[in-house]
Amino acid sequence: MRVQICAVGRLRKGPERDLYDDYLTRFDRTGRALALGPAQLIEVEDKKGGGMAGEAALLQKSIPDGALICALDERGKLMSSPDFADLLARWRDQGRQDVSFIIGGADGIDPELRAQADASLSFGKMVWPHMLVRVMLAEQLYRAASILSGGPYHRA
Predict the structure, then answer these.
(1) Domain count within the chain
(2) 89 phi, psi to nearest 5 deg
(3) Residue 95: pLDDT band by 50, 70, 90 thresholds?
(4) What per-residue confidence (pLDDT) applies to 130?
(5) Does residue 154 belong to any structural domain of this protein?
(6) Domain range for residue 60?
């Protein structure tokens, strides 16, 4: 199952980018044997100033046809890392070819696009910077692959 992280804005060089790249490399390596991945980052920028609706249109274009859409949103479902791993495995086992995680810009995800999502995930009740959410998602993808492979990364 291919994974797309569709996000508003560009993740510049720096510590967040280094962490993101490291976790996604680990996910690709660990997930390969589990039919998870590869993961791809698709970044969009609303250069025309269309606000949330403009960002939503660009995000929508970045999502492959037929992909399961999971919105990263503070109103989404809170879950443990093992539950997230189980969710990924369930989507894979249902024959999903693609899952697209969408991350909005500073104002979040347009309500219309959020309503189209098949699932919504939250990293807590606090609002996180959208650039940091990418790192957190990449780490949780790697952790999920590690859990599913029986690896030692997750010690619960």
Answers:
(1) 1
(2) -65, -40
(3) very high
(4) 84
(5) no
(6) 2-149
